[in-house]
Each structure stands twice: as C-alpha cells, then as structure tokens.
Amino acid sequence: MTQDWLVDNRGQVRPLETQAMAERETPYRLYRFLTEVEDILANNSNPQAQLQQIVPRVRYLLDHSPWIAMPIFPNPDTGWEVLMLYDEPDFPLTVQIVAWAAGTVSPIHNHGCWGLVALLDGQEQNQFWQRSEDQLETTTTQLLNPGEILTFLPDSIHQITALGDQPTISFNLYGETDYQRRFEYDPISHQAVVF
Ligand SMILES: [Fe+2]
C-alpha cells in the first residue's frame, strides 16, 4: 500500500489515509472521474475529506487509463513542460501532465487552490515553507516516488527539485485558482509576488 500525503497551510506534511476504490465494471473515463470529483467538491466542504475521496479516484484513473501517461518532454529553454488534459472556464478543475528536466528547481510558490500531484516517473524532492510575519522559513521536505500522491491545501508553499538523471513526469490536479492568493516567494527578500 502506497502512502499518500497532505501538506497543510503551514507547510507541515502528514499522512492522508485513503481507501482503494473498488473495481468498476465500466471503463473509468476521464469525464466520469471529473464528474465524481465535481460531486465530491459540491457535497463536502472539508478540504481534507474532499482529498481523501479524490486520491483513490486519481490512482484508479491512472491505473486503468494508460493513455494519460502520454509522451511529454521538458522544454530545454525553461526546464519544464505542461500538457493540459482538461481546463474549462467556470469549472473548478484543471488536469495537467507536467514534466521537469532532471536537476531543475522550481520557484518557491503556492497555488491559491488545493492541489494534487501523482508522480508517474522520475523522483521529485519537495521542500515546504511557512510564511509568518513576512519571514519565509523552511518547514520540512518530502521525497516523492512514482505511484505516490501528494496533496496540498491552498496556502501551502512549496518548491520542487527534479532529482536523478531523467525528467520527472506527474499528473497534476488543481481546484479553482484564486489569483489574488497565488504567489511566488523570493527566498532572499522574503517578498511575495502574485504570478
Ligand atoms: Fe506547485
């Protein structure tokens, strides 16, 4: 059983207890997954409880829909690439496949929405941060291996490093972004900049 993780708004990581989804008789299409996630979000207001229900569906979708792990290669100019699988105006879900070139370090950022990263390939180090009284402090780290899922709350601040010698590939799911609440952070000045 693979452990899943939740990062809270203060940059602390804790295990997220989830239950595997029962086998379905019909194919688990992307639209079924999206519909179920939409219902979970509508019927429950607790983010942790929502993610506990969403994580098993992500794992089932990835296990039963190999087409999702489509070829993707990091852009040599930026070190990363995004394939948008689903993004519809006024629908609070975004689904992406993301690649980071080996050795690439992301900016320190939050997302202004809950998020989920399921690692498909490579190895990803996650550094977490906390901001209090305008100071940015590191809290903890979490290594992510293929098959593992990391979820985070809207104000959790993180930075990823693609380890090893091959790109990291991940399936990323995000809720509805609050663009006033989404920041990149400067580790020297501790300033937050909307991005
Ligand atoms: Fe991120």
Describe this structure in words.
It is a single chain. The chain has one domain: Jelly Rolls (Sandwich), CATH 2.60.120. It is α+β, with helices and mostly antiparallel strands and 195 residues long. The mean pLDDT is 94. Helix content is 16%, strand content 39%.
Strand order of the largest sheet: 2-1-9-6-11-4-3
Beta strand %: 35-45%
- DSSP summary, beta strand count: 13
Structural class estimated from helices and strands: alpha+beta
Distinct helical segment count: 2
Topology overview:
Blueprint: E1 4-7, E2 13-16, H1 30-43, H2 47-64, E3 80-87, E4 94-100, E5 108-109, E6 115-121, E7 123-132, E8 135-144, E9 149-152, E10 157-163, E11 168-174, E12 183-185, E13 192-194
Parallel strand pairs: 1-9
Antiparallel strand pairs: 1-2, 3-4, 4-11, 5-12, 6-9, 6-11, 7-8, 7-10, 12-13
Helix pairs in contact: 1-2
The structure holds fe (ii) ion.
Summarize the structure.
By secondary structure, this protein is of the alpha+beta class.
Supply database-style keywords.
Jelly Rolls, single chain, three-stranded antiparallel beta sheet, alpha+beta, 16% helix, seven-stranded mixed beta sheet, 2 helices, 195 residues, binds fe (ii) ion
